[in-house]
Specification:
Layout: H1 2-13, H2 16-21, E1 23-31, E2 35-38, H3 40-50, E3 55-66, E4 69-78, E5 83-92, E6 100-109
Parallel strand pairs: 1-6
Antiparallel strand pairs: 1-2, 3-4, 4-5, 5-6
């Protein structure tokens, strides 16, 4: 659960280096209703596009972890006043939960 917490903090802070070291080369990021990103190169490019968005606050409401799967949900507030509710579901490379193989994200502006 600590790994998921730190991953979300890195995401909110735009810490791309930390994020990409936490995922496998064949990462699949499925942002439901928007796009599906495959591979670390495309994943990194997507993160670079998002880097200019500055986070004002990250509220993680729940983190769950069991075996090769985990999840987190909460609210992210941006400097520009926008707020998003999110739920992310993670599939890890192994039960140790040190590298993410797949992410399914649900994001709603609130």
């Amino acid at each position: 659960m600590e790994f998921i917490k730190q991953f979300n903090i890195a995401f909110a802070n735009g810490d791309i280096e930390r994020i990409i070291t936490s995922v496998t080369d064949d990462i699949v990021w499925d942002i439901i209703g928007d796009k599906k990103i495959k591979g670390k190169e495309h994943f990194t490019k997507e993160l670079e596009k998002m880097r200019s968005l500055e986070t004002a606050e990250l509220i993680i409401e729940q983190i769950l972890s069991h075996g090769k799967e985990g999840a987190a949900n909460g609210i992210i507030r941006m400097q520009n006043g926008q707020q998003y509710a999110f739920a992310d579901f993670y599939t890890f490379k192994g039960a140790s939960g040190t590298q993410i193989k797949a992410i399914t994200s649900y994001v709603l502006e609130v």
